[in-house]
């Protein structure tokens, strides 16, 4: 008889032969920065997550620092919004101010800047609009300007999430022309038009005012298209590629991992987070066990980087100790 249970008899042996393990260094923690002063707004649909003004950002960064997480992803929420998302590339915009503050006060953090227009446009779409259509080519220079602006502020990684064709090439060329040749791009390469984003749109004030994003974000029935998107982004200059969302797209992560040896990020998105939080609050699941299982599944599928709102809790559970959350 083959006795495979011999390697499961206790936790010490199970951990010795475990094929996939999580590390705190795997995580990127998203933070929402809102323009204004003395603001800490709880996001009702995302328990435990808040919007912070720059002057109160230190409160959250202290929590992040205590957790051991060293990578953060910033989403800016401006007061002024217009048709062309001009605050996305304003040198004194909310995101740029936050980056400068973090790099001066918490230089140990790696700061990733999300590059998109949806939080900054009056219509909530990720590109310029003409007669109800999201314009692709006309949007590219604005995304490039936003990327350069964030790099100048001190962003360590640029993460374009807009899903415009050709955006990685436009951003890479702009970064290189402005002497940011060593600034990597983490591309939201396979970003699906997903219902799992609903809580994020509350958090980032980025819901489109009309229509939807299905003409530029991917159809959730497609996998081969995801591979094409990933390979296109790599050819255009991406250094890291991403699949978003994660849980319902583990097959996509796995497929992409078999097609490229580039680093792969998985975005454990707001809806995935909120569902776990809601079920845990009702006593239906064990939050720690479910979160760790979910995150391990993402890594097992092929993601070496996990963007997750669970990052601080997961770090605590990995360390096996506690910090003041």
Automatic annotation (TrEMBL):
Taxonomic superkingdom: Bacteria
GO cellular component terms listed in the entry, alphabetical order: cytosol
Record field: catalytic activity: 2 5-aminolevulinate = porphobilinogen + 2 H2O + H(+)
Biological process terms in GO annotation: protoporphyrinogen IX biosynthetic process
UniProt keyword DNA repair present: no
Enzyme class: lyase
Protein's pathway: Porphyrin-containing compound metabolism; protoporphyrin-IX biosynthesis; coproporphyrinogen-III from 5-aminolevulinate: step 1/4
A GO MF term: zinc ion binding
Pfam families tied to this protein: ALAD
Cofactor: Zn(2+)
SMART domains membership: ALAD
EC number(s) on file: 4.2.1.24
Keywords: Heme biosynthesis, Lyase, Porphyrin biosynthesis
Subunit field text: Homooctamer.
Function statement: Catalyzes an early step in the biosynthesis of tetrapyrroles. Binds two molecules of 5-aminolevulinate per subunit, each at a distinct site, and catalyzes their condensation to form porphobilinogen.
NCBIfam families: PRK09283.1 (NF006762)
Protein name: Delta-aminolevulinic acid dehydratase
Species of origin: Anaerocolumna cellulosilytica
Record lineage: Bacteria, Bacillati, Bacillota, Clostridia, Lachnospirales
């Amino acid at each position: 008889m083959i006795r495979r249970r011999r390697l499961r008899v206790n936790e010490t042996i199970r951990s010795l032969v475990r094929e996939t393990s999580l590390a705190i260094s795997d995580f990127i923690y998203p933070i929402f920065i809102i323009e204004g002063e003395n603001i800490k707004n709880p996001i009702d649909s995302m328990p435990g997550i808040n919007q912070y003004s720059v002057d109160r950002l230190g409160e959250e960064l202290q929590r992040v620092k205590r957790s051991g997480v060293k990578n953060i992803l910033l989403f800016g929420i401006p007061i002024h919004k217009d048709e062309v998302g001009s605050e996305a590339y304003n040198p004194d915009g909310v995101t740029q101010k936050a980056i400068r503050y973090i790099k001066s006060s918490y230089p140990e953090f790696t700061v990733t800047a999300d590059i998109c227009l949806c939080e900054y446009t009056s219509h909530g779409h990720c590109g310029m609009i003409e007669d109800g259509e999201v314009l692709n080519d006309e949007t590219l220079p604005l995304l490039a300007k936003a990327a350069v602006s964030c790099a100048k502020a001190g962003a360590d990684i640029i993460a374009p999430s807009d899903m415009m064709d050709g955006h990685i090439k436009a951003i890479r060329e702009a970064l290189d022309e402005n002497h940011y040749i060593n600034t990597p791009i983490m591309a939201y390469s396979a970003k699906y038009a997903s219902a799992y984003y609903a809580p994020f749109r509350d958090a980032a004030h980025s819901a489109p005012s009309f229509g939807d994003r299905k003409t530029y974000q991917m159809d959730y029935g497609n996998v081969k298209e995801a591979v094409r998107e990933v390979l296109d982004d790599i050819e255009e200059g991406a250094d890291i590629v991403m699949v978003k969302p994660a849980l319902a797209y583990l097959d996509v992560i796995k497929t992409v991992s078999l097609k490229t040896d580039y680093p792969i990020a998985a975005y454990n998105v707001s809806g995935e987070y909120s569902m776990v939080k809601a079920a845990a609050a009702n006593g239906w699941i064990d939050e720690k066990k479910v979160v760790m299982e979910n995150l391990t599944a993402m890594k097992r599928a092929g993601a070496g980087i996990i963007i997750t709102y669970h990052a601080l809790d997961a770090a605590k559970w990995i360390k096996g100790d506690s910090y003041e959350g």
